[in-house]
Write a structure and sequence with these properties.
This protein is of the alpha/beta class. The chain is built from 15 helices and 12 strands. Strands 1, 2, 3, 4, 5 and 11 form a 6-stranded mixed β-sheet that branches. Helix 2 links the parallel strand 1 and strand 2.
């Protein structure tokens, strides 16, 4: 992070903690659970939301699976978090299929937010969840990985032994997306055979994708999985020493999977109306216009997505990175139906 940005972020955090900038002493505080990756964007937008409404916002970040598990915890539902440090969630943000899993478990309630301006296969018809930022799976490589890996077969190279790590399917959204993509490309049996071979190079499990970024930047790892939004934001902030790539199959075709950030109001929320106001705010045109320049993500509001400005020739954006890459969107309901069996088969293959 540059020195110039640090005072700005500290000021935003101070405003959030103090309730200044429009906050009122009697205003409620709502809590957002979210996967890592959008923290800096959240800080700015939450500060604006507080200034506009007086409603304060706190943020808890963890892996996509963990945030759902916490919402599903009886202790969290009762406001008795075992660590006594994280309030219960009012707004849950996670990646698919974890958001579908939360809905199926009865952890979400209809928000009543108008989502007519969003066309997405990852939008619940009953209003339980809706995407807020578009994103896609990718991989990152430190320059020390030479030649740079470009294919799935390259990830099996002997020189990457102990230098490669991917986030764990079932715990992390990006790791889960990687497993599903391999199933799509190689078939269920082929994906398991490939991951069993990849295990020779894999350092070990990781519950969150975000912790892999600094390891690749420092050279502790040479290759890891990631996602376009988080990795591109790190590059733009000057905090990264890696390149983004999408592994190709033997025919040269590069394919990725869409993994948007998806949000829903929790069924256990003490402040569902305020959580819904925050969700509506994040989907508003003014906020969606900040998704690309400030979060390095893809806006989900149709009117903003159509008007996305063209990037300068040397500027990397999600759209420019995905040029020439096939973006696959799974049937997430079908994924959820076989999710537990897929995870069990994966664990058997890599143990």
């Amino acid at each position: 992070m540059t020195r110039r940005r640090l005072p700005i972020l500290l000021l935003i955090l101070a405003l959030l903690l103090s309730g200044c900038g429009g906050g009122r002493p009697d205003a409620p505080t709502i809590t957002v659970y979210s996967p890592n990756g959008l923290g800096a964007w959240y800080a700015t937008q939450f500060a604006r939301f507080t200034a506009d409404t007086g409603i304060k916002v706190t943020l808890f970040e963890a892996g996509s699976g963990e945030v759902v598990s916490r919402v599903n915890s009886r202790a969290v539902w009762e406001g008795l978090d075992p660590q006594n440090s994280v309030p219960p969630a009012d707004l849950l943000v996670t990646l698919p299929p974890f958001i579908q899993k939360a809905a199926k478990a009865g952890l979400l309630q209809p928000s009543g937010v108008d989502t007519a301006g969003i066309t997405s296969p990852v939008k619940d018809a009953g209003g339980l969840y809706v995407p807020i930022v578009g994103n896609a799976l990718c991989f990152i490589a430190n320059p020390a990985a030479s030649p740079p890996p470009a294919t799935w077969d390259d990830l099996l190279r002997p020189d990457l032994q102990g230098r490669l790590q991917y986030s764990t399917p079932g715990d992390a959204g990006d790791g889960t997306a990687m497993l599903l993509l391999l199933q799509h490309l190689m078939g269920p049996r082929g994906a398991l055979d490939y991951l069993a071979r990849l295990q020779t190079n894999n350092v070990g499990p990781s519950a969150s994708t975000s912790v892999l970024q600094p390891k690749v930047s420092s050279g502790e790892l040479w290759v890891a999985n990631g996602d376009v939004q988080m990795n591109l934001a790190s590059i733009r902030a000057g905090d990264a020493n890696f390149n983004i790539f999408f592994p190709a199959m033997p025919d040269g075709v590069r394919t990725t999977v869409a993994v948007p950030y998806v949000a829903g109001v929790t069924a256990s929320s003490k402040y569902p109306e305020q959580a819904a106001r925050l969700l509506a705010f994040l989907l508003s045109e003014q906020v969606q216009r900040t998704v690309l320049p400030d979060a390095s993500g893809l806006p989900v509001l149709n009117s903003v997505a159509r008007q996305a400005p063209a990037a300068a020739p040397a500027e990397r954006t999600p759209s420019s990175l995905l040029e020439g890459v096939q973006v696959w969107t799974p049937d997430w309901d079908a994924v959820l139906a076989g999710f537990d069996a897929d995870l069990a088969a994966y664990r058997d293959a890599v143990r």
